[in-house]
Structures are given as structure tokens and as C-alpha cells.
Design brief:
304 residues; 5 helices; Oxysterol-bd; Oxysterol-binding protein; 14-stranded antiparallel β-sheet; OSBP_sf; alpha+beta; Oxysterol-bd_CS; 16 strands; sterol binding
Length: 304
């Protein structure tokens, strides 16, 4: 959960079997909704990650809905060598109102890094005719140019930059992007964080302070508590119920399988309104809050 430059964002794990997560972000211009369930394939020294899910952006001014299907991700050198990520394949964004779509191809990284980060593709109209060619690198910038039916640049036109990554903040020791810094900073956090906000994770706080030993201990402790909660839930035959999202009954198809869709229930906005109306909210130091994402009290688990 965070507030970033006018955007209110809430995310939650909505299912444990199989693991599924949801997110909702909103400002005056758009709404962003995602239901995500990853499928993986272990290949020895690498791991393929398939993004089973649905991502949609609703433009408030026009009511248009954009549907996004991202490419898969490959985690290389899991055991030997330096671990690094690649995302080879197609990303498709479709306008469900007009039928227009953008298809971008993320090039696989070749020998000695050739082709790494490179992206090429086209924007098509509803009749599948290319109208714009797009090119660039997903870690730096993207540009577009009008094209003909063959996908070649139109005479008299030139490439125009449409997006550029923000500069990395000065004195960055975490190798975060500008967006990741804003997303994880207490400076951009709303008043009275949820106790489940990942900013409050003790392993993360230790890592931020450079205490790797404590970070490892705290991470292990959290994982053990997660397993204990899972075992207690199964032993007592209790269903996990998400707090901020609800099941819709809708099933969506992806290139990697079907999945059920959750939707934001609006309760987080109600919570924020109550907090902002409370005169005591400004007196709370969020950094002193305890991380508590748990469904059960620790005494309940120990006594089971």
C-alpha cells in the first residue's frame, strides 16, 4: 500500500493455494487493476516465469480499457554465476473499446549482451494495419514513428521519443529506479500505514541499514511464521479471506493458462478517509509500527 505522486495503490495476496496476488491503483486520470498468479518451470541453472493473470488500465476521461499481456521472464544463473533477468517474448496491449493494439517484441539477450533490453514493435488499428512503429530499450527509452502498410517509416517523418526512464536518485546504494525509491520510501507513505505494509518488514529494515546477518535471521523468522500460519489454517479448516479484494466469478484466459479474477472492493478508500479524518493520525510515527500481516495471533498458533 502506498501513495505515489497522486496515485493511491493497494495490493494483497488473495490466495495461498495457489499463490495469487492482486493490486489496485487509482488517481484522477486512470485506474489500474491486476490479478496475478505465476507459473514457473525449473530448468537446472535457470527458471522460466510465466505471468498468468490479467492486467487492465481504465482511462477515466474516455472510459477506454487497456488490457495488458506481459512477456515471460527468465531468471538466469540460479546456481552458478551472476544471477540476472531477461524477458524475451511479446507484450500485447489491447484497447478493448476500439480494437487497436500495440505489440512489442522484447529481444532475448545474446552472446556478450547483444540485443539485451531491446524492444521493437508496432501499434495496429482494429483492422490489424500497422500505424506506428516503436523501437528502443525497455530500461532507457522508447520512440515511435508513423509507418506504412509494410511497417516501413513514412517519408518525411522521424522518430519521436515517447518515454524515458527517470534519472536514478543521487547517492543510490540499492540500485533502485526512481519509481522503486518512491514506492518504498517512508517519505511518500500515507499517514498511518497498514501494519501489513512491506516498508515495516524487519528483514527489509535491517537490509536497508546494511545489517545482512540480522536481515537473514528476520527473513527466516517471517518465513517460519508464514508456514506456521498455513499449517494452523489447514488444521482448523479455515478459509483465507482477502480484506481488500473479492472474487468476481470471472475467468480469464492467458497464453499460459486460465485463472479466476478478483476485484478491488473499495474498502481501502473507506479506511483512508477514516484515517485522514482522525486528528491523531498525524501524531503516529509509522517507522515505529510493528509489522503484522498475520491472520492469527501467535498464541493461537502455539496453542494449536
Amino acid at each position: 500500500m502506498t501513495n505515489h505522486e497522486g496515485i493511491s495503490f493497494i495490493s494483497e495476496q488473495v490466495s495461498h493455494h495457489p499463490p495469487m496476488s492482486c493490486g489496485h491503483a487509482e488517481n484522477e486520470h486512470f485506474m489500474y487493476d491486476v490479478t496475478s498468479k505465476l507459473r514457473t518451470k525449473y530448468l537446472g541453472n535457470s527458471l522460466d516465469v510465466y505471468p498468468v493473470g490479467r492486467t487492465r488500465v481504465t482511462l477515466k476521461k474516455t472510459g477506454e480499457v487497456l488490457d495488458l499481456v506481459p512477456p515471460p521472464t527468465k531468471v538466469n544463473n540460479l546456481i552458478f554465476g551472476r544471477t540476472w533477468l531477461d524477458s524475451p517474448g511479446e507484450m500485447v496491449m489491447s484497447n478493448l473499446m476500439t480494437g487497436d493494439k500495440a505489440v512489442l517484441y522484447f529481444h532475448p539477450c545474446g552472446w556478450f549482451g547483444s540485443g539485451r533490453y531491446e524492444v521493437d514493435g508496432y501499434v495496429y488499428n482494429k483492422d490489424e494495419e500497422p500505424k506506428l512503429l516503436m523501437t528502443g530499450k525497455w530500461n532507457s527509452s522508447l520512440s515511435y514513428q508513423p509507418c506504412d502498410m509494410e511497417g516501413e517509416p513514412l517519408p518525411g517523418t522521424e522518430l519521436k521519443e515517447v518515454w524515458r526512464v527517470a534519472d536514478v536518485p543521487e547517492n543510490d546504494k540499492f540500485q533502485y529506479t526512481y519509481f522503486a525509491h518512491k514506492l518504498n520510501s517512508f517519505d511518500t507513505a500515507p499517514q498511518k500505514l497498514l501494519s501489513s505494509d512491506s516498508r515495516l518488514r524487519p528483514d527489509r529494515c535491517a537490509l536497508e541499514q546494511g545489517n545482512l546477518s540480522k536481515a537473514g535471521v528476520e527473513k527466516t523468522r517471517l518465513e517460519e511464521r508464514q508456514r506456521a500460519e498455513k499449517n494452523h489454517r489447514e488444521a482448523t479448516k479455515q478459509e483465507f479471506t482477502p480484506k481488500w479484494f473479492q472474487l468476481t466469478g470471472e475467468i480469464t484466459s492467458t497464453p499460459w493458462g486460465d485463472m479466476e479474477i478478483y476485484e478491488y472492493n473499495g474498502k481501502y478508500a473507506e479506511y483512508r478517509m477514516e484515517v485522514e479524518a482522525s486528528p491523531s493520525a498525524a501524531d503516529i510515527d509509522d517507522k515505529n509500527l510493528d509489522f503484522n500481516p498475520w491472520q492469527f495471533e501467535e498464541s493461537q498458533i502455539r496453542g494449536a
